[in-house]
Design brief:
The chain has 454 residues and is of the alpha/beta class. Strand 11 and strand 12 form a beta hairpin. Helix content is 38%, strand content 16%.
Amino acid sequence: MSEYNRRRFLKRGCQAISTAGLALGANPMLTLARAAETDFSASDDYRALVCIFLQGGSDGFSLFVPTANGDYQDYANSRKALAVDRNNLLELSTQSGPQIGIHSAAAPLQSLFNDGKLSMVSNVGNLIEPTTIQQYKDKTVQLPAQLFSHSDQEIQWQQLQGRNRGTDGWGAIAADYLSQYQERDYLTSISLAGSNYWQAGYGQRPFTMKETGVLEYAGLDINDEWEGVRAEAFNRVMQQNQTNVHASAFADIQNRARNVTAELGRVLESNSALVLAQPVEGTLASQLSMVAQLIAAREQLGLHRQIFYVEMKGFDVHDNQNADNATLFAELAEGMSFFQNTLEQIGMAEQVTTFTASDFGRTLTSNGDGTDHGWGNHMMVMGGAVNGGQIIGELPSMAVEGPDSVHNGRILPKISASQYAASLLEWAGLEQAQLQHVLPNLVNFDGHDLGIFS
């Protein structure tokens, strides 16, 4: 092999490493530090959490709008030209709860809510400890670092490890517990949207996929005239007895990655017919379609607990908000409705809980044609196990200078993201000691049973 081709071979080999979606397993020190263990293999039950991260700071205050006369007037006075018109709001059946409507572009969510398959969790946000308006102003409590900054709050929301940036996402640490009794622990945590802080860290690392399936090795097509030569050389290198510990580890990782992707590809192909409707590529629904196919393959893969990450971008609506929000809400609603219908078709609606998360909410005030970075936000939880058709928590005042606004219409959260996460993880099977390890700020709050589940 010439020096040029040798360099080219090595370069393409490195590309192959980066394109193979391989989970490398849990940190052994973290495993030794586990406070408790739950044997999921003792039964044939299955549960999965699916995180839909709305990147950029979703505007929950345009998605869900109070419709009682006084409350709507406060909202309209705050939002001015950005206020969603009453005629564009679809009333939710909350029985004895508050009067609230949902943006008409998100009509499928109205049906899910009214049918008891979806609930709204009101005014959730990143908090380190319970905080009042006065404590915020006096700076007598610990506050999240760099509030209202996209990069900082996305990381902190997905880690929930303290005031500053940590090393572990709460999804990664939780997956480490959930992976213990599975035949293929590397499929406990799966991302359909590339790397993210929620699944990253010293816990169980995510297996990365595309909405179209497993990430194939690049440049190693045995049937291609030029790539076939490289593939044969690569195979010979991987099959050699390695005396160097680093070379041996490299070969083990490569062989495992190729075996995993080949196996999972075959399993997905055998289950593809179970998901009948095929949504448009590049949409949230297309990511969720692949999640459904993976869930359908759970028994073949020996899986009892999983977490999935999907993502929608575009929620940083500083301008053209009314038009952009309508488009975003429509894609979000269609994706969530498609996913829930698909889960019902494959008989897994009770075993899967889908939830939304985002950097932060938006300000009540307008900057002209959009909104700025806020704090508290409305989230959604969906699934057969969810106590559906509920507004969980208290709706904040929509007045700019009201009792829930800390500054310029930024709403102070009443439910911490740690409480929200704990409720979800407890349903997935984590015990109290494990929750305290995954979510160190949880101890600062009185309880985490928000009433999300029946």
